[in-house]
TrEMBL record:
InterPro entries: ATL_DNA_repair, MethylDNA_cys_MeTrfase_DNA-bd, MethylDNA_cys_MeTrfase_DNAb, WH-like_DNA-bd_sf. Residues 6-83 form the Methylated-DNA-[protein]-cysteine S-methyltransferase DNA binding domain. It comes from Lysobacter korlensis. CDD domains: ATase. This is MGMT family protein. It holds the Pfam family DNA_binding_1.
Amino acid sequence: MTTAADRILAAVREIPHGQVASYGEIATRAGLPRRARLVARVLSHNDDAALPWHRVVRADGCIALERDSAAFNEQCGRLRAEGLTVDNGRVRRQRREPDLDQQVWGPAD
DNA sequence: ACGGTGACAAGCG
DNA sequence: ACGCTTGCCACCG
């Protein structure tokens, strides 16, 4: 039988290299909306070394682990190794184009 | 059963 | 962008 934990782990494994997902997103993708805290719990108990747990961050981009803890540093390192920018414990979000208006509305002639 | 806790999230000032 | 508050839900003593 597939347990909730199984589906959560599967969802985590589907996060592409070089990308991150929030606990809430993973919960939803696992068919468990509003179970972000369950995702956190599952990860904290996970033993699978192959699981890309480092790609899971909080909705605001912050790393959820305690600052300067071994796990925290491990996560930072792995994310940077995948090409992401981690600044002050937070993964930089995709910066929106400053001229987004132009892209959407066309040049302001 | 009940209250505290936690690798969370969204709304509001 | 930050800090607070509230909602959330599984676990544990």
